[in-house]
What we know:
alpha/beta; TIM Barrel; two-stranded parallel ribbon
Amino acid sequence: MKSAAAVILLGAALVLLGELRGVSAPKPFAPHQSKGAWLAASGTAPLDGPSALVLIERMKQLGADSIAVGPDVVQPHLDAPELEWGRDDDALRFVLRAARTFGLKTFVMPRVESPDFFKPPYPWRGTMTFERPEVRAAWYENYRRMIVHYGRLCAEEGVTTFGIGLEYRKLVTEDPKEWRRVAEAARGVFGGTLVYSANWDDYERIAWWDAVDVVGIGAYFEIIEDGLPDGKYVDTKTLKLPDLSDVMDGWKPIRAKLEAFSSSVARPILFTEVGYTRYADTCWYPWRWQAVREERPEQQALAYRALMRTFAGAPWWAGVYVWRFYTRPEDMSDCRYRTTDRSEHVLRDAWSHHRR
Length: 356
């Protein structure tokens, strides 16, 4: 009689063979491509404690060569210019120094968060704007001061990449001169790689990519088209789940468009953030973490495998940061982006091989 372990391994192998139908062998990551993951505190396990050290070591064992941290910047009210930052600087320095001890590169990108994001009508940083000119001017002044603060900290701690913002869909198109000033302020204190992180569906609207070194994209692309009107979603109860070939076919036009865009702006593209939920429709809507529906964790692993196989080795692609890993994973059982053992096997398989 076969052992339970043998049966499990055989089953996994058969599933993998199904995923690989008609798909060529993967390419290794190139040396210039980041194999990164976002780290965050959870529950009672802060970033400046032993749980963080365990997590960083785990990331290295998975094959990651870089970690990302996003210190919170609080904006108490979206219609006012005040920003609060620096509260967690000691924890930020702790985790950056720990990463350096483990031989990992680091990426820091401050994230503006607001209590208003969690109140009706549930705005998002991408919809932020300021009707009154004096409020807008004051917000940018505060924002530049915040960027200088973190830029200096990053320079002191040997950070590799510094993000000057993310997902400000309206502001970055309305105020290109202001964002050039933000980038200039960052360059004045930080000598490493500068990136701005656009949303997956608006990176082409930004006219000042020449002000940073890398085009950053929060890469929650809808890999498979649903053919439905806006606001309508596929039914996970009747969904025909894709295999690896289907998902990689879905990536082909997106990849071609990104490669052409990289060439047009003469900048590499970094997936500053990408995550897949454990929901059955994650290849349709990787950004949709709300609304509980059928879970199919194998689809999360499939999505990561397709991503790595699609982009690894591309000379214009600067790598990826996976969203995200927590200091105490058991505290985050409701987080649908939390990876499974199978997904982590996919990441380890992709990250543990590289081209010399």
